[in-house]
Here is the input.
Amino acid sequence: MTDPDALDRLAGRLRAARAVTIMTGAGISAESGVPTFRGADGLWGTFSAADLATPEAFARDPALVWQWYRWRQGIIGRAQPNAGHLVLARLEARLRGVALITQNVDGLHQRAGSSQVIELHGNIWLARCSRGCGAAPDAAAAIQPGEAAPPPACRCGALLRPAVVWFGESLDEDRLDRAFTASRGCDVFLAVGTSSLVYPAAGLPLVARRAGALVAEINVDDTPLAPHADIVLRGRAANVLPALEQRL
Here is the structure.
């Protein structure tokens, strides 16, 4: 059971904060039925990342990569935002200076009502040019019916690829800069459902702590962040976040 004193303390700090930064990871989406990539039931236990989520894999077999991503879209499309997503969307309007950073690519935060989301790892519902011609991300091309649909083409003639960050690729500099700026400038940093294993995202709460912010973690498991957090709330985001909201 979540510590009520810790919830009260966090709620008080959130009410007083001039800026709040929230970062979410796979754990919050797992509560909606979206498989994670790590853990006993993670997708990488069934599929090889080297075969499906690298630029080399796409160059070798773009049809296979698109088939897999459309299969993932089918799973994500049936999922619904959970109570944790909905609370975070409401906090955007209720608290001052909220920045929501996510490592997830599923778009569940937007479906829950969050309007200002920094998607560090991209969005599975968008496609972009594999040649980098500069064409804007294409949503329609990424959402074609059927896993066997052919890879979509960009207007420049190159293939489109899922607009997500693959292994071996760098994060978008603008999004990363925004995430670091929000982390350095917040009074409270809340990490929700993230393993705190993947950098540079895992370094953001530490940046916030060095800048003087209170760092809180909501997670069902121990993580490398826990020893550095001021408040640790063990439990599911869909349970802990509504309990926190009631205290605001």
Q: What stands out?
A: The chain is about 40% helix and 15% strand. The first strand starts at residue 20 and ends at 24. Residues 35-78+123-164 form a domain with the SIR2/SIRT2 'Small Domain' fold (CATH 3.30.1600.10). The two ends are 19 Å apart (CA to CA).
